[in-house]
Give the backbone structure.
Amino acid sequence: MRYIKLFTIITTIIILFSGFWSGDSKEEQRQDRIKMAQKTLNDLYKYDSKAKNIIKKSYGYAVFSNVGVNLVLLSAEGGTGIAHNNQTGKNIYMNMASGGVGFGLGIKDFRAVFLFENKKVFDNFVEYGWEANAQADAAAKAGKKGGAFGAAITVAPGIRLYKMTKNGLALQATIQGTKYWKDTDLN
């Protein structure tokens, strides 16, 4: 019972800080997500000079801004983002949420960039968007100081993922379920 209350508190914190209910107009929310995605991509290009060319050649990509909280045995993440189809130029506005169990302590603000090799994996992500994973990482970053471990990894056939920590302090080893879905209010 105590863990359920703790998980509820963590989830509430995630929702409040992740931008789900910002009070901005729909157009302002769309523009904020586009700006976040562009800034994240520019940061990624500085981190990995080959990424820009890889993204251009991909069928599409998705960029998410996420906040994660780990408190002893429970973890939760929440965020917003866009999926961009390089073939049509269309943006699809999306949300994400995650919950898990395992050892962890801390809070972090991070970005995720997914690269999709072809139409099938892009459409599957946009329409079904489910990912279950295990993760272990350490991050200590404030502004431009500190560092976080992360590199592009293949998360499924035809999908690569970059994760970049913006700010936070976290040590975790968790098993998580993550759901990505279309934002019905913005699409």
User: Anything to note?
Assistant: Residues 136-150 have pLDDT under 50 and may be disordered. Strands lie at 60-85, 91-116, 130-142, 145-148, 153-156, 159-182. The first strand starts at residue 60 and ends at 85.
